[in-house]
């Protein structure tokens, strides 16, 4: 059987944490920097938005977490940060650094505009990394390591694991490397490296869940990783699969018209975490993740979640988990 819920974040564990540590029973820690995202199609700028996994994750958690749950965000930006206030502010204040805000350019071809776009991603600026001492010095029910530009250092992830009862990690925080020679235009092309050869690999056995896209999956070594933690592989319009030591499960997708794939995996992971916080099993929580991933790709930039959308999510999830075998 897959993991039933987030390890250590059931009702008894929450009560124990509140009694012993005096903090919120379901307080989370989100670690990853905000970014400036620039979308280009056919060489023209078609969108400039708030980006970074922390932006997508915090938006989903704000919308979908149970009553009484809270979370802190540790994110770094530079003095040029464009989204500190309205009309589209970062929801949780970041730490200010002298270095410029991390910036990405996502280039799409015109031919891919009405299909699943071929995205060429380059990092134009990189803010300071997030160091262990940047994290709050208190315990948390759960943590999400969601770096996008190498900002979550191995030692920072190690400290997260020590502070949090359960940690969920996005593989892009571990396997992304940046090649300035291949980027062009002053940016560094984003590519992947094998997880097993990184300093993050020894930490995997202390992680609860590792999420990867189907493109990232070959780099994390699913067969090896599943013996250390539960591995989630998102497959776009095909939904997702969960792998654990001794089994696997496929979870059906939600349909969506894709406009911008940026943030789909981040929104998925946050939706999945929210499902666990509500007490769902990992496979049922994955359905919540699929909903928020689909909602993210249907909008440009950080998505807006209306109450009606959340009602649809609750309705569809109820019938999927109660009437159908996934």
Order of helices and strands: HEEEHEEEEEEHEHEHEEHHEEEHHH
Rg result: 18 Å
Number of strands: 16
The shape is globular
> Mean of residue pLDDT?
84
Explain this structure.
The structure is a single chain. This protein is an alpha/beta fold and 326 residues long. It has a single domain (11-318), classed as Ribokinase (UDP-N-acetylmuramoyl-L-alanine:D-glutamate ligase, 3-Layer(aba) Sandwich), CATH 3.40.1190. It is 29% helix and 26% strand. It is built from ten helices and 16 strands. Strand 15 (240-244) and strand 16 (247-251) form a beta hairpin. Helix 2 runs parallel beside helix 8. The longest helix has 17 residues, at 307-323. 47% of the residues are buried. The model is unreliable at 10-23, 112-117 and 322-326 (pLDDT under 50).
List the helices and strands and how they pair.
Elements: H1 11-21, E1 27-31, E2 35-41, E3 44-51, H2 53-64, E4 70-74, E5 76-77, E6 95-96, E7 103-108, E8 119-125, E9 140-145, H3 154-163, E10 164-170, H4 172-175, E11 176-179, H5 180-183, E12 188-192, E13 209-213, H6 217-220, H7 222-225, E14 230-234, E15 240-244, E16 247-251, H8 264-277, H9 282-297, H10 307-323
């Amino acid at each position: 059987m897959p993991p039933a819920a987030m390890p250590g974040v059931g009702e008894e564990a929450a009560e124990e944490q509140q009694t012993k540590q005096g903090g919120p029973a379901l307080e989370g820690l989100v670690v990853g920097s905000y970014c400036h995202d620039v979308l280009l199609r056919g060489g023209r700028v078609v969108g400039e938005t708030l980006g970074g996994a922390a932006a997508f994750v915090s938006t989903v958690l704000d919308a979908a977490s149970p009553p009484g749950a809270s979370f802190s965000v540790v994110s770094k930006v530079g003095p040029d940060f464009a989204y500190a206030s309205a009309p589209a502010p970062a929801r949780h204040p970041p730490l200010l650094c002298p270095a410029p805000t991390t910036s990405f350019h996502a280039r799409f071809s015109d031919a891919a505009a009405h299909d699943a776009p071929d995205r060429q991603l380059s990092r134009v600026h990189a803010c300071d990394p997030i160091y262990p001492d940047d994290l709050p010095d208190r315990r948390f029910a759960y943590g999400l390591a969601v770096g996008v530009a190498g900002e979550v250092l191995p030692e920072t992830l190690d400290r997260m694991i020590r502070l949090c009862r359960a940690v969920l990690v996005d593989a892009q925080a571990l396997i992304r490397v940046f090649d300035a020679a291949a980027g062009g235009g002053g940016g560094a092309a984003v590519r992947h490296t094998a997880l097993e050869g990184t300093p993050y690999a020894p930490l995997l056995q202390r992680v609860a869940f590792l999420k990867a896209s189907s493109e990232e999956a070959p780099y994390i070594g699913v067969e090896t990783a599943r013996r250390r933690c539960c591995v989630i592989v998102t497959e776009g319009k095909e939904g997702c699969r969960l792998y654990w030591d001794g089994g696997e499960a496929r979870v059906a997708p939600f349909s969506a018209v894709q406009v911008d794939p940026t943030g789909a995996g981040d929104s998925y992971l946050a939706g999945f975490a929210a499902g666990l916080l509500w007490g769902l099993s990992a496979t049922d929580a994955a359905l919540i993740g699929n909903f928020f991933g689909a909602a993210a790709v249907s909008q440009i930039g950080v998505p807006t979640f209306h109450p009606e959308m959340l009602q649809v999510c609750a309705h569809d999830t109820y019938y999927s988990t109660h009437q159908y075998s996934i």
